C-alpha cells in the first residue's frame, strides 16, 4: 500500500473506474467483469470492491455467478503460477524444514478440506493463499472443487452491493446499513478459522508422527 501510494497508484480507484466501464458495455459487461476479476486476483488487487460492484451491476444471482467464475479462474491461474513458476525456488528455501515438508504432505492428503475451510473464512488472505497452495501438495482438482467454499461469502457481499443505488455508493452507505449481514459473515469466518486451525494442526501432527516413525 505504501509503494502504490508513493507511485500515485490507487487500486481501489482503478477498480471503481473498471466497474463504470463494465457498466457501459451492456450485454458484454459480464464477460468483461469476469476477465477483470481474473486479472485482479492474479495482481493481488482487493476483490471486495469488485464483488460489491457485481451486485450493483448484475443483481444477486448473475452477480454471484460472475464473481464466483472470475474468482475461481483467477485463483486457478495464481495456483498454477505458484506451482510451476515459483515452486522450485520456494522448494529450495524450505527443503531442510522437516515440519513444512510434513505439513505439505498432509495438505496433499487432505487438501480439499483445508482449502474449503480457508475459502469459507474471510480472515485468510484470498490472493496470497492462491499462490501459497500452489507450493503445497494439494491437487488442482481438490483445489478447484474447494472453491465452493467461497459461495456463502460471495453471495452475501454481492447482496450487500445490490442494495447500493450506484457504483459510487459502494463501501459507504450500503455497508453501514447492513450490520447484521456483516456480523453473519464475520461469525461464519470465525467458525471456519477455528475449524481450519484445529484441523490443520491435527493432520500436521499426524504427518509429523508418521515422519518420525
What would you say this structure looks like, in words?
It is a single chain. With 213 residues, the protein is an all-alpha fold. The model is unreliable at 1-7 and 173-177 (pLDDT under 50). The protein has 12 helices and no strands. 78% of the residues lie in helices and 0% in strands.
Task: Write a brief structural summary.
The N and C termini lie far apart (46 Å). This protein is mostly helical and 213 residues long.
Strand-helix topology:
Layout: H1 2-6, H2 11-23, H3 29-42, H4 47-84, H5 87-94, H6 98-109, H7 111-120, H8 126-135, H9 140-145, H10 151-162, H11 173-176, H12 179-212
The description of the largest β-sheet is: none
Q: What proportion of the residues is helical, as a percent range? A: over 70%
Q: H/E order of the elements?
A: HHHHHHHHHHHH
- Unreliable residue runs: 1-7, 173-177
Category by helix and strand content: mainly alpha
Ends apart, CA distance between termini: 46 Å
Query: What value does the average pLDDT take?
Result: 77
Strand content of the residues, in percent?
A: under 5%
Q: How many helices?
A: 12
| Integer tally of domains | 1
Annotation, overall tally of beta strands: 0
Keywords:
single chain, 78% helix, 213 residues
